Structure formats: structure tokens, C-alpha cells
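so i finally got all the pieces together for this one. its two components total, 866 residues if u count the protein bits. some of the lines might not be protein, just check the labels. i wanna see the whole assembly predicted at once instead of chain by chain like last time, that was a mess tbh
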Amino acid sequence: LEEQDESRVLELFEDMHAADIADLLEFLPSKNRRTLVSLLGDKLPPELFIEVEGEAQFDLYEAVSNEQIADAVTELDTDDAVYVIEELDAEDRAEVLRALTVDDRAAIEENLSYPDESAGRMMQRDLVALPEFWTVGQAIDFLRSEDESIPSDFYDIFVVDPGHKPVGSVPLSRIMRSARNISLGEIKDDDLHLVDVAMDKEEVAYRFTKYHLISAAVIDAAGRVVGVITVDDVIEVIEDEAEEDLLALAGVSSDLGVNEGLTDIIKNRFLWLFVNLGTAVMASIVIGLFEGTIEQMVALAVLMPIIASMGGNAATQTMTVAVRAIATKELTSLNAMRVLNREVIIATVNGAALAVIAGTISWLWYDNITLGLVFAFALVFNMIVAGACGLLTPLTLNRFGIDPAIASSVFVTTVTDVVGFFVFLGVAAAVLL
Amino acid sequence: LEEQDESRVLELFEDMHAADIADLLEFLPSKNRRTLVSLLGDKLPPELFIEVEGEAQFDLYEAVSNEQIADAVTELDTDDAVYVIEELDAEDRAEVLRALTVDDRAAIEENLSYPDESAGRMMQRDLVALPEFWTVGQAIDFLRSEDESIPSDFYDIFVVDPGHKPVGSVPLSRIMRSARNISLGEIKDDDLHLVDVAMDKEEVAYRFTKYHLISAAVIDAAGRVVGVITVDDVIEVIEDEAEEDLLALAGVSSDLGVNEGLTDIIKNRFLWLFVNLGTAVMASIVIGLFEGTIEQMVALAVLMPIIASMGGNAATQTMTVAVRAIATKELTSLNAMRVLNREVIIATVNGAALAVIAGTISWLWYDNITLGLVFAFALVFNMIVAGACGLLTPLTLNRFGIDPAIASSVFVTTVTDVVGFFVFLGVAAAVLL
């Protein structure tokens, strides 16, 4: 397919959605990517620059000229244009910015002036903001005009006062269903879900989800409308957030999917494994304290991984629920005590049930009832520690402004390993020998 | 606040969004919930029934009459109404359905006839579908009419042929920007992203995300438009999916957040811990095979948890990336071999680096270079197994139609524990004694 037949290829790509071309690029080996990109030439859809990810993105940006990037940036909405600009290195960025019109450049530079994860970076600058006293008819006539500031896709009209401060919004469907002589003020929703330009994008996503918004006005510090955020941008944030938590809990940095560069992935995972080696060594040091005990009763060495494993799993359950509940604001300092009580009850009930089973197994295995009792006790004890620690660790990290998903796992499993080994071997040393 | 002053309370709630009332209900203790619900009486917003979750949902549904539920259901969109009906037990459900108009009942019953996780369940039935030859002016006049089938919120107008089959769609913003005499056929997007009534809701969410859709027409087996899915419903699916994967990997069923009933949570988590006890016992049996070896060299017991822990962590990294990549369709059978090669390289490089560190530590600790070498070898070996197994397990489960997030963890950690202990103790027994 990819070899000679230029016109066939171009024909095939003509009707393809940019997202599909991006997928295709990601699947192709690096060499074919460049061939394809140069073949498409100026037929590359501008949206391709924002759809493509990982190594394919790198190849695409390398394969096209800065001029082509500038053309694409001109076509895109502000938020997407900013995304493309952010991906460039300093030199290319300056060159692309120079090739833009003054207006486009100013808009992009202003977005870039807002903090990295803020609403200001996400927003699009073109929006429809009309005065309250305008009628539906005037609004429609204005929209039919060729005014440059009107974006191609929009879902709400924002109603503003003379100071350009928002006083309400009207969904397009309501405009269409209203007679021409009705004023926007009469049909507007007062229930404004305004987004401050400095608001964190996670908070933006939370509000969109909670109030089922399609678009929301972004206001600056003076309360004036400066942009709009639409739901499609928010979906990306929601997906990224959830993915970040999932991967962070497993010790993988979120930027690195299966299409990323190998060296980056290796470095990224190494760091976590290295930290984990440190914590595993700590657990071993605890075991080392009891070498004499193990020598006298090797059954302890056989059973001790069960204590650590059960504690680790119980802690992971609680911790994952807690991390998720913090992210969705179901768990706050308001109900933390109630949830802690519940977790301790859950851990005690499940710990007791499993301790009976596990204790019986070990008793029968080694024909030693005291061993069974010590084992059961250590199991319950470690599971209660796991439940409390699995909840309190993410809560505490969150309180100090640290992302609970990133740092919780290491700490929690270290605690359950160390406590588990120490209690089991310590009690065994005291009672059994 | 919640005690006597009825009118104050009612006043406070008047302007509150249903989502905020739902949050409040979830934070309140059970008794106060019922008081509040009965106080609000018929001022309860219908949306409250879909916003509220967990125990608060149970309390709300208990506290109101079936008549009140029927009133709320009448006000809601089809998809939301179906959600409410699904939450009721058989008896209440029948009573509520009987209280509805024939049309509402028929619509709800048809949605309920589609499979549980399908587009048919998610869709709303009211939509705007107009013939191709209608002009923008005719469309606007129709929308201004009081026609009952017109939904209150919509974002696209679907263009249909005489057989009610979709041939295109027009976003509202484009209608508003076009002159009255232009026909819908001229301005429609041909690029239809149709959703089949039987399509899985995850697939629906994938398409919405990929193609940045705001709404999409749902067609039946004959290709006729029967409903519409809007982006706000899709956001919920995306959030639920990501959450499901996150929790499933940690061994928690997804329905059970911090607000659920205690018994359900205990049962749900117990199951996983019980399975895990089984696998931990398997690992212990492997250790038991080498009791004699450990008795002669207790250092092995001290070091062996490190092997298992590192293998488990490396496997979790790979597995989590794989589960996520399968969910986002970045990982398919097309690129599985390439990704496997990469994972083996990653595991070998990181395994070798960590083995040098860990081997040196153990050598110095016990002043035994052979022990250090055996330990390092077992570590590398187990990490390569972890990488391969962490990737192949979710891929294989997915191939057989099993959700990779649910079953992968147990299997993968069992393999790394068993392999890790067996190789380390086995090689040690052969070489060191």
C-alpha cells in the first residue's frame, strides 16, 4: 500500500478523519510515517497535529516544515493551537509564532501566560457574548453576519453586561425555540457556572461533570469574559486524570503509553522499582532481626509471605478506593472519621474471617496450634493496620497538597510489610521458642 | 439547621442545583436524610433521583411515594427515567410504570428491552430529525412550534431520508449562521458517526472521545433513527470505565464507593482477599519445598521477599499500562508482538540494573559472592517473566472476552511469586549447598 501509488494513497486519505490518520501513523513504523507525511504534504489536516501521540507525534513534527505548522496553527482553535505550540522546542516555537498574524500570536501568547494546568490554557478565545437587551432576532442576524470573532462551533451564547461581565447564558437550542422578538435576558439561565482563568483543570472537569455542562465561560480576575471551555476538552482532562491515577498507583508516570520512546519508559519505571527495592530491603532487614528464630522454626519463613501479601492486598483495596474517592470529592475531611471507622470495621471483620481460615491451615500443616494462633493474630493485626494506613496515607498526602495516587503505594506497602513481618516473627519468637 | 425552621430550609434549597442537594444528602446521616426529603416534599427536583448515589439513594427512594417517583420520571429524559426505573424493585417498578402515560411507559419499556450495557439503554428518544430538502427557515419555524417531540436540550439536528434513515447532521451553530433559504442538505455533515442500538457503551464512549462528538444518532437494526446519545451521558461512561479498571486492578468491585453499605463492601472485598489467600498459600507451598535449604542457609528466607516484591511490582507496572492501552485501543493484536519485544527489553535492562545493585547488597550483607550472584540471577529472571506475563495475561484475557482489569492481577502476582521463590530457592539449593 505505502509504496509507490501516490494518487491512490491521497485518495484514501481524503475522506479520513484526522483521528483515524493519527491512529494509522501510530501503528506504522517510523520510516513509513515520514514517507506518508511527506506524501500528504499540504493535504495534512491541521487537526492531525493535535490527534497524534507518542513517537508518531515526534516523527510528524520533525517531518513537516515550521511553515506548515504555522498554517495548521492558524486554522485551529486557540486551545488546540496552544497545544501544538507547547510541543515545539524554543527555536521552532519562535519561528512558528513569527509566521502567525498579530492577532493569532497575541491570543496564543496570552494563553501561554497562564499556569500550566489552568483553565486559561484550556480555553478557546472566540466565543459569542451578547448584551442582555438584544432580541433572539438580533442574535440570529448577528450570527449570520460574517463577523470574524464568531467561532465555527459553539453551544451556548453568553449574555454579558456593558462591562463584558457575564450575567447568564442561553443554550442554542433555546434560542432556536424562541420567537425573534424575545430578549436574551428573558430566556437566559442565571445559573452561571463560571470558570476562573486560574482554576485548575481538574476542578474545571469536576464542575462540567457535576453540572452536566456543555460549555462554560472563562472570566479573568476582573470578572470579564475572556474565553470559553467546551466539553470535548474536558473529556480529555477526565480521561487523563483517571489514567494518571491508575498508572501512578502502579508506579508508572502517566505520559508514557505503549507508543512512547523506550529510554524514557525504562528510566521512568526504573525509578519506581529502585524506590521499591529500598523498601523491600527494609522489610528484609526486619526479617534479618529474626534469623535465629527462623533457624529454629523454618515454618515461619514459609508462612511469613502470606502475612505480607494479605496486608498489601487489603491496603491496596482501601488505598485505591480512597484515592478515587478523593479525586471525585466523595471523601473529604468532613467524612474522613466516619470512613475511617468503616475501614477499621471492614478490616477487622475480613481479617478475622481470613485469620480463622489461614490459622487453621497453618495449624494442620505444621500440627502446631500455637503457631496457628500466632499466625492468625499477626494476620488480623496487619490487616487492621493495612485498612487504617490505606485510608490515612492518601488523606494525609492530599492534605499537604501531594497527589495521593503517586506516593501512597510505596509508603503503604512498606508499612504493611514491615509491620507484618515484625509482628509475626516477633510474637512467634516470644511465644513459640 | 435541619431542625425546625421549615421555611428557611425550603428557601435555601430553592435555588440549589440537584447535584448539590445530592452531595448534601450523601454527607448527612441516614435519619436527617429522611427528614430533609419529607420536608422538601414535592419541591424535590426530579434530577435528584439520578444524581444521588449509595446509601443516600436507598434512603431517598424509600422516603418518597411511588407516585412522586412517577412524577419525576415523567419530567426526566428517557435515559434518565430508565435509570430511575432500574433502581426500583419489581413491585415498585410495576406501580410506577402503571402511573405513567402510555407514551412514556412505551418509551421506557423499549429502552429496557435493550441489553444492559448497550447504546439502547443510554439513549434519549426525543430528538430533532428533519428531511434534507427543508430549509433553515423551515427548521427554525418548526423548532419554534410547540411540537411535543422536541427535546428541551439538543445540539445537532439530524437530517433523514423519507425512510427515517439518517443521511447527515447539522450542528445548531451552523443552522444559526446560515440564511433562511439554505436547505439542510447543503450544510449537513456527511461524516455520520452513527451508533447502533446494540453497541456496547464503552464503544460509544470511545467514538465520542475519538471524534469529539457532542451528540450522535442511534439507529435500529433497520437503519432508522430511534434515539440520540449526548455527551453528558458519555462522560459518565468514561468516568465509570476508568474507575472500574482502577478498582478492578485493586480487587474492588466498581459499584462500591465510600458511601455504600458496609455488608456489601465487606463481602465484595472478602472475595478478592480469599482468592489472594489461595494464591499466597501456593507461594508458601513452593517455599515449603525448600524448607531444608532454608534451614541450612537462613539468609535465603531474609532475601526471598525482595525477589517476589520486585517481580510483583514490575508485573503491576506492565499490566497496568497494558490494561489501559487495551481500553484505549492503543494495544491490539496488530502491535502486540512489537510491544512484547519492548517489554522484554525494558524488563531485561531494568532487571539487570537492579540485580547488580541488589546482588551487591546481598553479597556484602552475607559476605558470600555466590549468594549475591544467585540472588541477582533470580531477580533478572523473575523480572523478565513479570514483564512478559504482565503483558500477555491481559491480552489473552481480552482475546477471550474477559475484562482484563478484573482477572489479571491475581494471576500475574501468583506467577511472579511462584516463579520468583522457585528459581531463587531452587538455584540456591543447587549451587550453594
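Chain A touches chain B through 109 residues (CB under 8 Å).
Chain A has a mean pLDDT of 86.
anyway lmk what u think
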